[in-house]
Design brief:
- A hairpin with a 6-residue loop joins strand 3 and strand 4.
- Helices cover 51% and strands 18% of the residues.
- The longest helix has 28 residues.
- The chain is of the alpha/beta class.
- The chain has seven helices and seven strands.
């Protein structure tokens, strides 16, 4: 009788552990090393510990493949089809607009392809989104609409002046996202970099 109770407790504990490990994570991706470092950090630290847990290996593999997943999002800026030089307003031709949009789509596809490859190497299910607009707003909006458990952002390590002039996507998201936000700082640079 005690063996049956112990087995039931083990199964119940595994179910609780499995529920705790189910996580939806959103990782915004751009061409920066910081975003790829944040993805690598998330893969290694949030999803890389199944082997060390008490969940049996087959169950862990099934949980990792079916329950946990990362949404990779790339936000492309809106293309303004007009230019304000010193003189009159200049409008871009439809051919130029199409070429820019095609270039943006190709850029987003390249970035997300590289990120998907990293997820595939870690045997983690991933989906991709390409959005258009202001990155800060679109990332927070996506996090809310997708009901993610965690938003993982890379930090570019901008100095105080650049951050003040350019704005910080990670700072904005930390204050405006409706879910917990993890900002992954870049690794320290070595003296020869």
């Amino acid at each position: 009788m005690e063996a049956a109770e112990a087995a039931a407790q083990v199964v119940e504990r595994q179910d609780l552990m499995a529920e705790e490990k189910r996580m939806k994570v959103l990782v915004p991706m751009d061409e920066s090393d910081g975003s790829f470092y944040a993805l690598k950090w998330a893969l290694d630290n949030l999803f890389g510990n199944y082997a060390a847990s008490e969940v049996p290996p087959l169950a862990a593999a099934a949980l990792a493949a079916e329950e946990n997943f990362i949404t990779l999002v790339n936000v492309q800026p809106l293309f303004q089809p007009f230019i304000y030089p010193a003189g009159p307003v200049v409008y871009a031709t439809p051919a130029v607009i199409d070429a820019v949009k095609k270039g943006q789509q190709q850029n987003a596809a390249n970035i997300l392809s590289r990120a998907l490859h990293m997820c595939k190497q870690n045997k983690l299910k991933a989906e991709t989104l390409i959005l258009e607009g202001d990155a800060k707003d679109k990332i927070c909006q996506a996090a809310e609409e997708l009901h993610v458990d965690l938003l993982v952002l890379g930090s570019r390590g901008l100095g105080t002046i650049k951050r003040a002039l350019l704005g910080s996507v990670s700072n904005y998201c930390a204050h405006h996202a409706t879910c917990p936000v993890l900002i992954v700082k870049p690794p320290p640079r070595s003296a020869h970099d």
